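Study this fold:
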Amino acid sequence: MFYEVAVTHTSNRLKALDSLVKKIQKQAHEKSMSDSDVMELKLAPDMFAFGKQIQVACDNAKWCVARLTGNEAPVFEDNESNLDDLLTRIEKTINYVNSMTPDDFIGAEERKIEMTYFKDMHFTATGYIMWFFIPNFHFHTTTAYNICRNHGFEIGKQDYAGEIPLIPNS
């Protein structure tokens, strides 16, 4: 289960995010919007802007894999200033996530997941996946989508969902 969620599912979601950002980039150019304008779009004044939503989604993905495998996550500087930079960050995150194999997750179920946010407490690996990673990762990817939708970009559910790996009936 850990590999399927942390790698297969997460990689698929990041690829959909990559496609979404590319679509937004094209439409922003057609609307004569600068990348910095898009990067700073928000739903509400007290929420992260579009660019930060993408950064945090990528961070959640890389930290999930690192925490479940006992590895160090790569460090990203949070210095993306345009949409190409965000696309590079997404690509680096996909590459890191996809560098893992199912064997890297052996023993994950016994791993204590400790985070600075929760002093003197920890998650089990299953608890971390279910109650922290999945909701947090999807919150930031969904919010990035909703920011763009709210600001008039022509995107729909399929742009958020991305490729759905269906298997034909025999």
Summary: Residues 2-27+37-161 form a domain with the Four Helix Bundle (Hemerythrin (Met), subunit A) fold (CATH 1.20.120.450). Helices lie at 2-30, 35-39, 50-69, 83-98, 125-150, 157-161.
